[in-house]
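Renewal narrative, Specific Aim 1. Our central claim is that a sequence can be written position by position from structural information alone. The example that follows is taken directly from our test logs and has not been curated for this report. It begins with the structure tokens describing the chain, in the order in which they were read.
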């Protein structure tokens, strides 16, 4: 099925992340710590940890830093005790937001998140106020250079739920959240290693924004991501490519 342009937007976001690499490393390390604490240090038996480690490796987090994070989470090394917190709310233009955090100080985290929403003209909502609009989805992204038919065939054999060909020729292979690790590995084994991949929250419908509103939404995203406690920010806005310039 046809979809909107993805590849350029992904690259813009990647550049923005690279500019904040120190904070990105902090978030990735925290994610590993919590995953190991929750499900143990065995990557084969802990899909969440495998996903966190793969994500860290893709961003060039040093191997020894990853290993220390796993040990901290498993209780083999001392370290801060982080908890997972999810906030929901509405931002500019009525866009729904989910903000996933890992924090060792809940009061600090909620104050920072609430401030970002308030300054952007949005507001925090109750738990569940927007979560029903989103679902856990695994995304494997292939650049326009890949062969569409081969990717589709491989994805069907791997057990993917859907394949979307975007306007720019990039290809998205979508999986149910719980099938992400197995489908990704099956695609890699078949010779189709994705250019980008992640386990994310995707809205059932997105709202197309004009440049002005898109800029306001991106400013809120930047404010939220400036907090070390914020791990991921999800929203149901369709951002035009030129808004990233």
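The sequence written for that structure reads:
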């Amino acid at each position: 099925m046809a979809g909107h342009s993805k590849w350029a937007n992904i690259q813009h976001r990647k550049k923005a992340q690279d500019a904040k690499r120190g904070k990105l490393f902090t978030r990735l390390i925290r994610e590993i710590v919590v995953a190991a604490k929750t499900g143990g240090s065995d990557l084969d038996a802990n899909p969440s940890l495998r996903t966190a480690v793969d994500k860290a490796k893709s961003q060039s987090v040093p191997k020894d830093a990853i290993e220390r994070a796993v040990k901290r989470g498993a209780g083999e090394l001392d370290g801060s005790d982080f908890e997972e917190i999810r906030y929901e709310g509405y931002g500019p233009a009525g866009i729904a937001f989910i903000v996933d955090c890992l924090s060792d100080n809940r009061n600090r985290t909620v104050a920072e998140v609430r401030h970002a929403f308030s300054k952007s003209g949005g507001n925090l909502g109750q738990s569940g106020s927007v979560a029903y609009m989103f679902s856990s989805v695994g995304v494997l992204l292939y650049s326009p250079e890949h062969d569409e038919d081969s990717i589709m065939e491989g994805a069907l054999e791997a057990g993917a739920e859907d394949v979307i060909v975007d306007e720019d020729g990039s290809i998205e292979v979508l999986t149910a959240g719980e099938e992400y690790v197995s489908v990704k590995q099956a695609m890699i084994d078949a010779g189709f290693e994705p250019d980008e991949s992640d386990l994310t929250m995707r809205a059932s419908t997105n709202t197309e924004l004009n440049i002005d509103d898109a800029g306001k939404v991106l400013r809120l995203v930047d404010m939220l991501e400036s907090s070390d406690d914020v791990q991921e920010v999800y929203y149901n806005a369709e951002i035009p490519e030129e808004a990233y310039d």
